[in-house]
Design brief:
single chain, mainly alpha, Arc Repressor Mutant, subunit A, Tetracycline Repressor, domain 2, 11 helices, elongated, DNA-binding, Homeodomain-like_sf
């Protein structure tokens, strides 16, 4: 019984998120009313408020869900034990990141629009940073003098920057090209 309730709640929240995402393609978040969201989703306002206290909470839920999907897709790359750096940043590994964004380009195009979702890029950056920091084998390959937190933030910022560039270019390049370019960039700093 409890699982059935959870599925209904998830379906309702998914419908509300979907309605908001469709409405935000044409409007700024401030212009969209709860009534418009619920009308689009075919629910009443009471249902909306049963799941979200306000639009801000809905927006945060959309951002959190997108980031969780992104992180869960790339996380296996960072938790494979004793994996050398050159394997972690190979074209195949990088392709997972870009392919996920390419497969979900409609939502990422909206999320990377700072006028619609101003906190998305920063939250994504910190989530990627935490993921890199959780890779103990990866981090122990560096000297003790390296500020690991700064390094991880710099790497995550670079990835978010690449993704932002790609989105702003309206995906002019395919995921394979973006992955290859990321590897070529990383090679510049890994030469001995």
């Amino acid at each position: 019984m409890n699982k059935k309730t959870d599925r209904r709640i998830e379906r309702t929240k998914r419908d509300i998120r979907f309605a908001f995402m469709n409405l935000i393609t044409e409007n700024d978040a401030e212009q969209i009313t709860v009534k418009e969201i619920t009308d689009y989703a075919n629910y009443n306002r009471t249902t909306f408020y049963a799941h979200y206290s306000d639009k801000s909470e809905l927006i945060e839920d959309i951002i959190d869900e997108a980031i969780q999907g992104f992180i869960s897709k790339i996380e296996p790359t960072f938790h494979n034990g004793e994996v050398p750096i050159h394997v972690k940043f190979s074209s195949d590994t990088s392709l997972v990141v870009f392919k996920y964004v390419e497969d979900n380009k409609l939502i990422f195009s909206l999320l990377f629009d700072v006028n619609k979702f101003p906190s998305f890029q920063e939250k994504l950056c910190f989530s990627i940073k935490e993921l890199i920091e959780s890779d103990i084998h990866f981090l122990k390959q560096f000297k003790d003098t390296l500020d690991k937190s700064l390094y991880c933030y710099t790497q995550s910022s670079a990835l978010v920057g690449r993704l932002n560039f790609w989105v702003k270019q309206e995906y002019a390049f395919n995921a394979e090209y973006m992955a290859d370019q990321m590897v070529e960039y990383l090679k510049l700093f890994n030469r001995k």
